[in-house]
Amino acid sequence: MLTKPEDTQPCIARYGSHADDRRAWARSMLGTDSLAPYVIGRETFAHAASICFDAMGGVALEARRADMREEVLTRLRASDHATVRDARTQGALRAAGIEARLVPDPAASVAELFDERMQSHANQGAVADVRRAFPRGYLAVQFSADFGDDATLARIAHQLDLLAEASDTSIVLFRAGAAPWHDDIAVYEHTAQRMRQPAVRIFESLNVWDICALIAKSAGFAGSSLHGRIVAMAYALPRVNLQHADSGKQHAYASTWETTDTPGVVPVEHLQKAMLDAMHADREALAACAAGLAQAHRAGFDPIAELACRT
């Protein structure tokens, strides 16, 4: 995911089936032999005063190869403080003898911490263009490149047509990221071509604040991105995740933090119904959920802040 899109397939073809060559390439790119280099250990920062993990996700850890899993667990055991963002990860770590507090993802605080910046991006540039184009409101829709086969795109286009008509809103397709295996603008172009609904637009900006502001000013979020959902949660908006082959983290987060009447992760065929249900949710309950999650993350982060102050 650190390569340029045009270099990804040649890289896979060259290294994908050769473990030794793959490890050598990874070492040259990252400067480490670690199987999980994003989980920092004391061997990397030997003189660090403290190493903390804030609201980690790890729903796939149990399915990883044993040596990678043990590397991660060893580093977590040696850390000074660790919290997790969903009950499934918490259970997996508890089974390995690691007690970790349950804390919402840091993005749950995005409205509390960065609303002024969000408003600024909403009132100018790409987001302002969308708001002017669709004054009656729009749904922010995103799905990753692995939804990109023709049959699935046809189903998504049909559901979006039905949803736009039933909700009297427009559809804005946006990318939550453009790294390899993330979102592909060509997939959105093919979807828009299949739709009968004329009020559809592809949002091209990849500026993270534009993306957040687009969601914040929408009538709701539908997509495969977990953090798209979390931003919508922070702004007390209707939200639905689309189910795909690797939606474990979305299931785990929604089942941990959502209220019982809020749609979680649904198949493409249920998108219209689930999104309409979400749009009829109690807005006061959504606002209370947003405030509660922001407060819960702040409380969960306090021990890390205290450790930082001591050093």
TrEMBL record:
A Pfam short name: PS_pyruv_trans
UniProt-listed InterPro entries: Polysacch_pyruvyl_Trfase (IPR007345)
Domain Polysaccharide pyruvyl transferase residues, every copy: 75-240
Protein name according to UniProt: Polysaccharide pyruvyl transferase domain-containing protein
Organism: Candidatus Paraburkholderia kirkii UZHbot1
